[in-house]
Design a protein that fits this description.
homodimer; mainly alpha; Tetracycline Repressor, domain 2; 9 helices; DNA-binding
Chain lengths: 212, 212
DNA sequence: CACGAAGACCTACAGCGTAGGTTTCGCCAG
DNA sequence: CTGGCGAAACCTACGCTGTAGGTCTTCGTG
């Protein structure tokens, strides 16, 4: 299987390694991910990976970069194929949020990586540029526009992190005796994790931005 | 130093272990944390820890539980010592958010743990109970009240995670040629990570909840 | 044709989580 | 007072991890 002579090329590069890392994390989870399993999946010696990636931390950087790249592609195609120009900042914000959400659900086990890392990649700032430009065009005050990206992605990161966390697929029941208000609200949590739920919360956040 | 006879008690229990784990993570970071260093800090054999905690995952659970306990204490004292009754849901929400923020800044390296775990501990639900009760008392529609905790903590978790992440202490500069809108907003990001910044964003989120 | 860089493999090491076994102490029943 | 028993600690050992350092082969270039 790994019958390659010692000096022959294995065709490794950062992109191929990152893609394999994402696939492996998707399948086995972050916990089990490591250099040796990855090398096995690539049919390669573990140390060969270190010729393209500095270390395990850089490996995780590459993986999160790769999935972030996906959302950029999706956001672009969604925007360009829309019938009408999404000039309104709220529609644009919704498109970006949906693309981001789709990525998170496609790679739930990679998503935690993304959230912990600084997002200064070119694709990320391009998306933000178009959003803040639209907001200014629509007359929102600069103070609000400056806060908007962090409010929006703060919410998205936190919410999607909770939704993609392993094992929590529903809100637990509450005792009406000790927690009457929570128990009364239980019906409102029946669509836990649904797209409609996120859209509703997104509306709340966007309303806050619009009204400030 | 570790001169204890084999069967003598080391006075271990879950609380002491959790406290030591939090201290160790605060000092050395999650990456370096492990059973053996923890045992060293406690002056104990690594395997002794397993008599009180099932495994490393449970160890991390205990640590996040411990810091969450802190925020509950703080929120209670803040509320009870306030001059006037914080009956308005917005003030209560701000108190809870500030207590949560203080905890995150006190234990920036433990905070990521907290965010990934389900928060169904009694102290957490008690805080939420008082918040949603106040919101209903103030006449907000149940639909909004049901979404409120997840919107609020989604935002807080995501934002504080970004703020407590290692190494990102400022927003980078943007090229006015390629990203004019972002460059124009740069002055608005000068208070990155400050309390005022979080309060502003919190106002935006609360405004969204109030206006929905 | 020589040679140096690039890219792959191999070896080795310290440290990890933890399963399983052993030792000792303190308590309580008889 | 004593016997036994469970709790709590320690010890050993195993398979795994990330990665430093060295070796080998091939390919592009002078």
């Amino acid at each position: 299987m790994a019958g390659r002579a010692r000096g022959t090329s294995a065709g490794l590069d950062r992109a191929r390694i990152a893609a394999a890392a994402v696939a492996l994390i998707d399948r086995d989870g972050l916990e089990r991910f490591g250099v040796r399993p990855l090398a096995g999946a690539l049919g390669v010696d573990p140390m060969s990976i270190y010729h393209h990636v500095k270390g395990k931390a850089a490996l995780l950087d590459a993986a999160s970069e790769a999935v972030l790249g996906e959302v950029a592609e999706l956001a672009v195609t969604t925007t360009t194929t829309a019938q009408h120009d999404p000039s309104g900042w709220q529609e644009l914000a919704r498109n970006i949020a949906h693309a981001y959400r789709d990525m998170a659900y496609r790679h739930p086990r990679v998503f935690p990586l993304l959230v912990t890392r600084a997002q200064t990649s070119p694709v990320a700032v391009s998306a933000l540029e178009s959003l803040v430009a639209a907001m200014r065009r629509d007359g929102l005050p600069d103070r609000v526009v400056a806060d908007a990206p962090m409010v929006l992605f703060g919410f998205l990161n936190g919410h999607l992190l909770a939704r993609t966390a392993e094992g929590q697929t529903a809100v637990p029941a509450f005792d009406p005796q000790t927690h009457p208000a929570m128990a009364a609200l239980a019906p409102g949590w029946s669509d836990f994790g649904s797209d409609a739920e996120l859209d509703r919360m997104l509306d709340i956040v966007l309303a806050g931005l619009a009204g400030s």
